[in-house]
Design goal:
This protein is an all-alpha fold. The protein contains 4 helices and no strands. It has one domain: Helix Hairpins. The chain is flat. The model has no long low-confidence stretch (mean pLDDT about 95). The structure holds adenosine-5'-triphosphate (ATP). Belongs to the bacterial diacylglycerol kinase family.
């Protein structure tokens, strides 16, 4: 039986609320996510002050979103493993390390991109170049 359009839009709203609850949960409980969120806000404020072009904004937003989303996936993997394998287990440890490594790779990439896009404009702004 197919859902009516009213039921479908209610289902979509509920799905969005669950996703929002997930964002609130990691913001509340994950120190690393808070750190990445703070860095994202800092980069966005700096980008606004330095006047990036549309394509540069797109790269910055995409990069920051990837880091935040990966941090959330990493937190989910940690919780799944804490639930399925609460005791010490070498395989669980390796899986957690790999997931944390994925976040680190994306974070290093984001840092390099932020330097490439923001540093030259910052140097011009403070009159070094
Ligand atoms: N059940 C386990 N068995 C073996 N090693 C584990 C286990 N749980 C955690 N570890 C090791 O401790 C590290 C930290 O795991 P933890 O679940 O405490 O994540 P965390 O401190 O929140 O890490 P992150 O900074 O990546 O969010 C893992 O990367 C892994 O090396």
């Amino acid at each position: 039986m197919s859902l009516g359009s009213k039921d479908q839009s209610k289902k979509k709203r509920i799905g969005f609320r669950h996703a929002w609850n997930g964002i609130k949960e990691v913001t509340r409980s994950e120190r690393n996510f808070k750190l990445h969120l703070f860095s994202t806000v800092l980069v966005i404020i700096s980008s606004a002050i330095l006047g990036l072009q549309a394509i540069e904004w797109s790269v910055i937003i995409l990069t920051c979103s990837i880091v935040l989303a990966l941090e959330m996936v990493n937190s989910s993997i940690e919780r799944i493993l804490d639930y399925l394998a609460p005791e010490w287990n070498p395989l669980a440890g390796k899986i957690k390390d790999i997931a944390a490594g994925a976040v680190l790779v994306a974070s290093i990439g984001a840092f390099v991109i932020a330097c490439i896009l923001l540093l030259p404009k910052l140097l011009i702004l403070i009159g070094v170049e």
